[in-house]
From TrEMBL, chain A:
Pfam families: ABC_tran
InterPro entries given in the database record: AAA+_ATPase, ABC_transporter-like_ATP-bd, ABC_Transporter_VariousFunc, P-loop_NTPase
GO molecular function, one term: ATP hydrolysis activity
Protein name, as recorded: ABC-2 type transport system ATP-binding protein
Species assigned in the record: Melghirimyces thermohalophilus
SUPFAM superfamilies given in the database record: P-loop containing nucleoside triphosphate hydrolases
Keywords from the named record: ATP-binding, Nucleotide-binding, Transport
Recorded superkingdom: Bacteria
Annotated ranges, domain ABC transporter: 2-225
Automatic annotation (TrEMBL), chain B:
UniProt keyword Glycosyltransferase, yes or no: no
Any single Pfam family the record assigns to this protein: GntR
PANTHER family per UniProt: GNTR-FAMILY TRANSCRIPTIONAL REGULATOR, HTH-TYPE TRANSCRIPTIONAL REPRESSOR YTRA
Keyword annotations of the record: DNA-binding, Transcription, Transcription regulation
InterPro entries listed in its UniProt record: Tscrpt_reg_HTH_GntR, WH-like_DNA-bd_sf, WH_DNA-bd_sf
The name this protein goes by in its record: DNA-binding transcriptional regulator YhcF, GntR family
KW Transcription (keyword) present: yes
Organism: Melghirimyces thermohalophilus
Stored SMART domains: HTH_GNTR
UniProt domain HTH gntR-type: residue ranges: 9-77
GO molecular function, one term: DNA-binding transcription factor activity
Length: 233, 127
């Protein structure tokens, strides 16, 4: 379980998250949604130990988060974090050397599934294929928590489709929990068990997605448009 | 092909409706094995937990049965499947009649309208 207790995060004068209390139960797919700058990425970074709360505490499976939580948490960054001179295969080797839970056989399977050429240099790949490589090295880990920051952002519909399929095929929800931030709410919605909606650093709602649909008669995107517009004033 | 879902109702129920319709159309036969949760998740592009929820719901309704270690199968209970056929027909008629009444049509108008439509429909089928 991931737990936030009174967590605030400020960057100099800007408050990214304000007094967030939150419990996320394991073995499901959790979507973190909100506008740009609402605190989605900050929330993921706090779970990976890449950022530390200004106040409050974040726990993963009862353990306070430090940078060493990386052994339990696989993180797909919004940024490109590869060595451009590596080939796809060398990228796999490198990740395997960094994470004991990295499963090379699974990496090969995902590589084949995504149609990636192991000998291609990362710097020569299209943006879509770099997105696929990112997903591959993230999902090849047998980590109990998989965090993905905007995995679909800026990619064309075919690539988004293959990433969504890859996610369904290679995540084991009997053992793993996925937390995903996204703008592509319509595409991601059928994958989600739970949605966490945040707005300007405040937690708006944590809800089972099918319950939300059943109670409001709205899709997640429609609900967001309504809620976020309604809160303006 | 990716089946789309409507916005307004829970996905697990929509998936359950879809399977029920496939059974009525005979695309899924009594005793037939349903795809595994993961296969169904891949095909429908939904979360495996959602598929599991759908299968649980269908099992609760007595339409499918899970055999340990083997998978999920359509029931061979003919009475249950007939009841399902009646249920779905009743449900669809209720939706239709409700919509017609909302527009102010009376029973007799609905009946004659339906009759005319069906006759015309039959005629065009034979062309």
């Amino acid at each position: 379980m991931i737990r936030f207790e009174g967590v605030s995060k400020r960057y100099l004068t800007r408050t990214a998250l304000d007094a967030v209390d939150l419990e996320l139960h394991p073995y499901q797919v959790i979507g973190v949604v909100g506008e740009n700058g609402s605190g989605k990425s900050t929330m993921l970074k706090l779970i990976t130990g890449l950022a530390r709360p200004t106040s409050g505490q974040v726990h993963v499976d009862g353990e306070p988060v430090t940078r060493r939580i990386a052994s339990k948490v696989a993180y797909l960054s919004e940024l490109e974090t590869f060595y451009p001179f590596h080939t796809v295969e060398e990228t796999v080797q490198f990740h395997a050397s960094q994470f004991p839970d990295f499963d090379r056989a699974r990496a090969r399977e995902i590589m084949a599934f995504m149609g990636l050429d192991p000998d291609a240099k990362v710097k020569n790949l299209s943006k879509g294929n770099r997105g696929r490589v990112k997903l591959m090295v993230t999902l090849a880990r047998n980590a109990p928590y998989i965090l993905m920051d905007e995995p679909l952002s800026g990619l064309d519909p075919m690539v988004r489709d293959s990433i969504i399929k890859g996610l369904i095929s290679f995540v084991d929800l009997e053992k793993q929990t996925v937390v995903i931030t996204t703008h592509e709410v319509n595409e991601i919605e059928p994958l989600l068990d739970t949605v966490v909606a945040i707005r300007q650093g405040h937690l708006l709602k944590v809800e089972d997605v099918d319950t939300l649909r059943g109670e409001t008669g709205l899709s997640l995107a429609e609900w967001m448009t309504q809620t976020y517009a309604g809160n303006e004033s | 092909m990716k089946p789309n879902f409507q916005h307004s109702s829970p996905i697990y129920l929509q998936l359950s409706d879809r399977i029920q319709r496939q059974i009525l159309r005979g695309e899924l036969k009594p005793g037939e094995k349903l795809p595994s949760v993961r296969e169904m998740a891949m095909f429908s592009q939904v979360n495996p937990n959602t598929v599991q929820r759908t299968y649980n719901e269908l099992e609760r309704m007595g339409i499918v049965e899970t055999r340990r270690g083997q998978g999920t199968f359509i029931t061979e209970d003919a009475a249950r499947l007939n009841a399902l056929r009646d249920d779905l027909r009743q449900r669809q008629i209720a939706t239709f009649v409700e919509a017609m009444e909302e527009m102010g049509f009376h029973s007799q108008e609905i009946l004659t309208g339906l009759e005319t439509y069906l006759n015309k429909h039959k005629g065009s089928d034979q062309d």
